[in-house]
Amino acid sequence: MTGIEATNGYIALALPFLAAALAPLLTRVLGQHAAWPLALAPAAAFFILFGAVPGVSAGDVFLFGFDWIPSFDIRFSFRLDGLSTVFGLLITGIGTLIVLYSGGYLAGHKDQGRFFSFIFLFMGAMLGLVLADDLMTLFVYWELTSITSFLLIGFDHHREAARRGAIQALVITGGGGLALLAGLIIIRELTGLASMTEVLAAGDALRDSALYAPILILVLCGAFTKSAQMPFHVWLPNAMEAPTPVSAYLHSATMVKAGIYLLLRFHPALGDTALWTTILPAFGAVTLVVGALLALRATDIKITLAYTTVASLGLLVMLIGVGTETAIIAAVLYLIAHSLFKGGLFMVAGSVDHGAHTREIDRLGGLGRAMPITFAAAMLCALSMGGVTPFVGFLAKEEIYHALEYADPYYIALMIAAIVGNALMFAAAFIVALKPFVGRMPETIDHPHEGTSTIWLGPLVLGIAGLVGAMFYTTYHQLFSGPMASAAVGAPVEIGIGWVPHLNLAFALSMATVALGVVIYLLSARLRSGIAGFLAAVGWGPDKGFDQAMRGLIRGAVRITRLLQPGQLDQYMAVTIAVIIAALFGPLIYTGGWPAIPEFPRLHFYEWAVFALLLAGILPVVLATNRLTAILSLGIQGFAVALIFMLLGAPDLSFTQFMVETLSVVILALAMTRLKLSVADHRPLRDKIRAGVLAIAAGSGFGLFLLSIAQRPFDRTLSDFFERYSYAIAHGRNIVNVILVDFRGIDTMGEIGVVMVTGLAVLALIRIRVGPKGARYPDPLEETP
């Protein structure tokens, strides 16, 4: 990629974040009119990416980036090919319309500037995700989408339902993101492949790996949680607590497609295996049918659309799992079509809510006369969602049936799931787009009205785009769907499907789907009550299970905290020392690397004197009848160690040890004089025995550990380095001082910080006041009124 092209790429990536920084100021100055200048940022990014379309459609791949963390071979790098470019165009193009829509929908909202910042931050994160080439860069943007979606879903944070929906989305998608991180790390460490370009060029390297199954499962966990596959789907309907612009953008065209993008991106490297063609179609088919049934059960327009999104994502996962060239083409056609018609229908739902002040289907009707533009936009989008020609949804549905028309039980089962799911979604589309606008208007609706141009512009443009794309299908395939499918397949593909029907099996199945959808639409009221009754009888579900899991997590954390942190210092010390003992003895036991016990050396009389001083200092500590004597006796050990340093020719280290030991004894003695403690230790014998066992085990563990280290061959690499460079670089002849002050200067500063914090803790301990007798902390496990 040339320097100018790379610069344009960086500009496209940076524009949403720049708009996020400027949004509060512009909104404060221009009010609701700030949407128009703010929309210029995603529009400019759209045209920058559109400039790459001719090269991408010719098969070119543009790479740009720079070293980020060279020591770990991590680059801040990006890849523009058919897949990432079309995703980028959807993100920025629909994002431009969403910004304008938000200006009208949230006009006068006191936090509109904050909302714009959040939506632009999400836009930048999503754009970076689909363009990222380096695996770690991809993960950073992946998690940033989870964080920014949390902010958007919980935008109305004063409502408990919004807070719950935001937390649920963050927990589920964030947990999946951690699984994805593990998978990406395994890929990097196992194969040395650090970028998507390298992964795609490696051919069967991942498929032939002994760790293929763990890599696949971890990647699928990330994709399934993000793209709301059963049973991880519950976060998406609950995310409808967000303002409608968020639903129209995140949960139809962008965030929920992140998992689909990941599967399409990894398909050439992980696909076409028994696990791939089993897991993905199974999860996808179940998600498709169950999501479509739940959509029919809902009465809120946004919830209906949310469950049809779940169903559509299931259909995409099923097609990617089938993995044939035709199936991937069908997935690509449906993905683009879904982004157009579902984004438009969500904006229609917001327009209806804005004009009629309700989204309940049973309370709506006759709005077509008062809101003709919204009605027209709704019908355009619904016709595409229903797979009616000449709309892009028709192209996708025809190709879906072409991909599954095999006389094999596996394909027959998937075909049945596709027909049932598509028929249910056909009915749901017209329930949303037709019922609110036809018939008699209920008296409860007061003065319905069409929204401003910024509200109806978005759905109308997306509806017309679905029509124009199908009418000019040759150009549409050449510029968008063809390059996208080629990148997902890993080889050039040709797409010839058009809006003119052909009399074949796929068209017959398409007509059968439409007929079944009409029947379901006419019987929707009965089916809705039946599904609602069945779900009421079942009772428990993944949504309730999430709440139970979160409550269990909190209660478990409280119990563990109560066990490990009961408020008793001796218990803290016992647990800490026990963990240290396990860390010392565990490796020795596991590896059998016990050190050889050396012979006792011949000592000079003064060395015997120091050794005797060490032993003599231990006895007063153990036998002392009061705490002050024990503290003073403990200092003998430090002084003896200082004498050893002096005898071995390290006077500066010996002096440091003398100073540290003296200060430690003085500080401990002062602290003890200020605390209200009994003079003697009145613990029962069993506690003293436990403390003695822990002390002996810890001492023995450290002794064995030091012996094992001393018996290893000495590596002089660091010693030679410090000898060579201490004076040449740091201009110091005392190597120890140079190491502490220059080479380990940051560590030394950290140690100073630790000492300071310890001093503050001692000060707080000295100043503490005992509460009234009988006072206690509240029990987190007790029910509060």
Which term fits the overall shape? elongated
Characterize the main sheet.
Answer: 2 strands, antiparallel
Give the termini distance in whole angstroms.
64 Å
Strand order of the largest sheet: 1-2
Uncertain runs? 774-785
Number of strands: 2
Fraction in beta strands: under 5%
Task: Count helical runs.
Answer: 31
Mean pLDDT: 88
CA radius of gyration is 34 Å
Structural class: mainly alpha
Helix content: over 70%
GO molecular function: antiporter activity
Domain MrpA C-terminal/MbhD: 612-676
Organism: Aurantimonas aggregata
Subcellular location: Cell membrane; Membrane
The gist of it:
The chain is mainly alpha-helical and about 775 residues long. It contains 31 helices and two strands.
Provide a descriptive summary of the structure in words:
By secondary structure, the chain is an all-alpha fold. α14 (301-322) runs antiparallel to α15 (325-356). The two termini are 64 Å apart. Among the domains are: 273-522, no CATH class; 595-681; 714-785, no CATH class. The longest helix has 32 residues, at 160-191. The chain is built from 31 helices and two strands. Strands 1-2 form a two-stranded antiparallel ribbon.
Secondary-structure map with pairings?
Layout: H1 3-30, H2 35-50, H3 53-57, E1 62-69, E2 74-80, H4 82-105, H5 112-131, H6 135-153, H7 160-191, H8 196-201, H9 212-226, H10 235-238, H11 244-250, H12 258-270, H13 276-297, H14 301-322, H15 325-356, H16 372-385, H17 392-404, H18 409-433, H19 453-471, H20 473-489, H21 505-522, H22 524-538, H23 542-564, H24 569-591, H25 605-623, H26 627-647, H27 651-674, H28 685-710, H29 717-730, H30 735-743, H31 745-767
Antiparallel strand pairs: 1-2
